[in-house]
Amino acid sequence: MIAETVCSAVSAAGLGIAAVTAYRRRFLAAARVAAYSLVPVALVMTGVVGWLASTAFSPTAWAGFGLLGCAWVLFATTRAVERRRGGTRKERRAAARAAAPDAVAPAASAPSLGASGRPAARPAGTPASRPASAPRAEEDFSDIEAILKKHGI
What is the pTM assigned to this prediction? Predict the structure, then answer.
C-alpha cells in the first residue's frame, strides 16, 4: 500500500515538472519527463511493484539470488580456466591428432614416408639434416639513407 502511494506521488511530481517544462516552451524535454514520470504508475498497475516488495522481504528469494550468483561465479571461473588451457579436453586432443600427420613436409617423397605413410625412422647416430639457409641478398639501405639525408641526419 505504501509503495503504491509513493509511486503515485513520484508520478504526480514528475507530471508537474513536465507541465512547468512545457510552459517554458521546451516541449521535447517535457515529453521526455512525462514519459519517465508515468513509469512508476505503470509498474504499480502491472503488479511489478507488489512482486518486488514480496521478493525483497523473502529469505527464500534471497537464497535463490545467492545460488544464482554462485552459479555465475562457477561458470565464469570455468570459462577463464578453459581459455587459459586453450579449449576443452576434446578440442586439445583433436588438435593434437590433426597436427600429427602434418608433421611431414607436404612435398615429401614416398620413400621418406615409408610403407605405413608415417615418416621413416632415422638411425640413432644420424644427425637430423638442417635446411640450407637461403643466401642473404645484399641489404639495400639507400632509401633509409635518403630519408636521413632529407632530415639532415
Answer: 0.42
